[in-house]
């Protein structure tokens, strides 16, 4: 039986995904356009292994999906509304405080 996550669970999962700078960079890149893992790794300057772990996290969190493309697999945002949500979130945070940083270090863990 399929269960629907509560609003709190959904927001917490989204927050955990955003808690890592590499995952944020991946989401921002995917907001622009779907991409292949090797291209994302090169563009972000991270190893393919490390990127793969973060992509798995984003998939498990329900934020990214894979799309078979011949012999390759492309990644994209799970829903176009996520791109809009990221746009709104970025605009809201910048509008609130442009000169502040979060004092907590991002955890290396996943969703």
TrEMBL record:
Name the SMART domains on file: HTH_ARSR
Write the record's keywords in alphabetical order, separated by commas.
Answer: Cadmium, DNA-binding, Metal-binding, Transcription, Transcription regulation
The record's section on InterPro entries has:
ArsR-like_HTH, HTH_ArsR_DNA-bd_dom, HTH_Metal-responsive_Reg, WH-like_DNA-bd_sf, WH_DNA-bd_sf
The Swiss-Prot or TrEMBL record annotates one GO molecular function as: DNA binding
Which Gene Ontology BP terms does the record give?
Answer: response to cadmium ion; response to lead ion
Q: Where is the HTH arsR-type domain?
A: 3-100
Report the NCBIfam families cross-referenced here.
HTH_metalloreg
As for what it does, the entry says:
Metal-responsive transcriptional repressor for the cmt operon. Binding of cadmium or lead causes the repressor to dissociate from the DNA.
- Complexes and interactors: Homodimer.
Name of the protein in its database record? HTH-type transcriptional regulator CmtR
Q: Which organism is it from?
A: Streptomyces collinus
């Amino acid at each position: 039986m399929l269960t629907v996550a509560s609003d709190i669970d959904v927001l917490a999962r989204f927050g955990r995904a955003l808690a890592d700078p590499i995952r944020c960079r991946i989401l921002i890149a995917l907001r622009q356009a779907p991409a292949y893992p090797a291209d994302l790794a090169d563009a972000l300057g991270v190893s393919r292994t490390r990127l793969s772990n973060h992509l798995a996290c984003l998939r498990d969190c329900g934020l990214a999906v894979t799309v078979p493309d011949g012999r390759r697999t492309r990644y994209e945002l799970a829903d176009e509304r996520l791109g809009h949500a990221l746009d709104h979130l970025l605009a809201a945070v910048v509008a609130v405080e442009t000169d502040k940083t979060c004092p907590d270090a991002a955890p290396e863990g996943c969703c």
